[in-house]
Amino acid sequence: QVRLAESGGGLVQTGGSLRLSCAPSGRTFNSYAMGWFRQAPGKEQEFVAGISASGAGTYYADSVKGRFTVSRDNAKNTVDLQMNSLKPGDTAVYYCAARLSLSNSLRLTPSEYPYWGQGTQVTVSS
Questions:
Q1: Fewer CB within 10 Å of terminal CB in the chain, N or C?
Q2: Could you tell me which residues come within 8 angstroms of residue 85 by beta carbon, excluding any fewer than 6 positions away?
Q3: Going by C-beta distance under 8 Å and a sequence separation of 6 or more, which residues neighbour residue 58?
Q4: Which residues contact 44 (CB under 8 A, 6 or more apart)?
Q5: What per-residue confidence (pLDDT) applies to 49?
C-alpha cells in the first residue's frame, strides 16, 4: 500500500514557476514508477510527466516538454515536478500517482496507476 501527498500548488502569474512535491509513504518507494497528472475544469485527466522507479526513465507530455522537469530522490522518498514558464493553460489540479514497476518504460493512462494523492491546485493568472 502506498499513500501519496502532494504539496506546493498555488497561484502564480504567467511566466512564473512552481515546484510540486509528492511524498509517498512506504518502504519500497524505489519499486514504484511515478506519474504526474492534471485535470482542468470540464476536461479529462491528462498525463503530464512520469519518472521510472530508478529515475533513469522520464517522459513528458508535449504540452510541457522543455518547461517542466520531473525528478525523484529515493533516499528521501520524494518526487518533484518543477514547472517553469507557466501558462494559463497549465491551470489545473495536479495529482501524483504511483504504480509498482521497475521498467524504464512509462505508462501514460491514469487507469494504470492504482495509487493517487489528493491533488494540489495550480492556478496561473494572465
A1: N
A2: 15, 17, 67
A3: 49, 50, 51, 52, 70, 106
A4: none
A5: 98
Rounded to the nearest 10 degrees, how much is the dihedral formed by the CA atoms of 108, 62, 38, 121?
A: 150
Copy the grid coordinates of residue 59.
517522459
pLDDT for residue 2 is more than 90: no
The radius of gyration of the chain from alpha carbons, rounded to an integer in Å, stands at 13
**Among residues 95, 87, 84, 54, which one has the least CA distance to residue 71?**
54
Torsion of CA 20, 35, 40, 17, to 10 degrees: 30
11-48 burial, b at 16+ Cβ within 10 Å, e below that, comes to ebeeeeebebbbbbeeeebebbbbbbbbeeeeeebebb
Question: Is residue 1 scored above 80 in pLDDT?
Answer: no
**18-22 and 32-39: which strand pairing?**
unpaired
Q: Dmax of the chain from CA atoms?
A: 42
CA distances to 48, 97, 100, 118 from 67, rounded to whole Å, are 11, 20, 27, 24
- Closest Cα partner for 118 from 1, 6, 2? 6
